[in-house]
Amino acid sequence: MPLTPEPPFNPLPEPGAEPPLPVQQSRSEALPWGVLDVILIAIFSLIATGLLTIISFAVVHAVPKWKHYTVGQLAAEPLAVVIPQALGYLLTLFFMMLVVRRSTDAPFWEAVRWRWPGNMYLYVAGGIVLSLAIQIGSSFLPIPKSLPIDEFFKTTHAAWVLAIFGVLFAPLFEELFFRGFLYPALYERIGFVAAAILNSLIFAFTHEGQLAHAWAPLLVLFVVGMTLTYVRERTGSVAKSFLVHAGYNAFLFGMIFVATNGFRHMEKLK
User: Fold this and answer.
1) Phi, psi of 210 (to 5 degrees)
2) How many domains does the chain have?
3) 191 and 236 fall within a common domain
4) Using an 8 Å Cβ cutoff, are 118 and 187 in contact?
């Protein structure tokens, strides 16, 4: 049954004190989407990003400077990969809006529980603390010294592109998909514990290609996914899990920034 229309919801944070949260949707009340809708969103994202990446490779390959590059070499060029991925995320966001609009008159950002806190810095700080704790814990795990994602960090401009994408765009899309759409759809069927575990496993394995299929970094991402899912469940806000996620990634890129003297000496990462 469609939800009662609500006043327009502003996805941007309001200055000042934290506003009172809207009344949360009852767990017994049907979501505006189901697991099948989430699968369709995932398929749409894969197709859109894949087609845009093919177009990007064709455009880049037409430039004389990169004409001799193989597909593998182009896949290691941040601009050739990150830009189509960002555009694919944007198209997927519009598709998400269509999925929500099909079943409810509620504003999209309210339907996905995007509720900005007044004390945003606390959640960003929480992400930084989580990242620091994960870094300490990872030192006891057999993390490979070289990962496929390291190939992107070759030049200063590549590092900046990855930093901006990794702190803003990737957390936004991943939180919308995993904690905004997938988790509540799973919760409706299998409950909190099973939904959190399955959601975090899928979250981790979507990154496995960047992590050399190694179990240790995948375990790390699983723990991160569980933490973000707990934040979303405990606070009822995807915006808060986004802030934690952004803070987590910001700390990682901050360490690289410091280690390479402002991304100017990327060779220090080797």
Assistant:
1) -80, -10
2) 2
3) yes
4) no
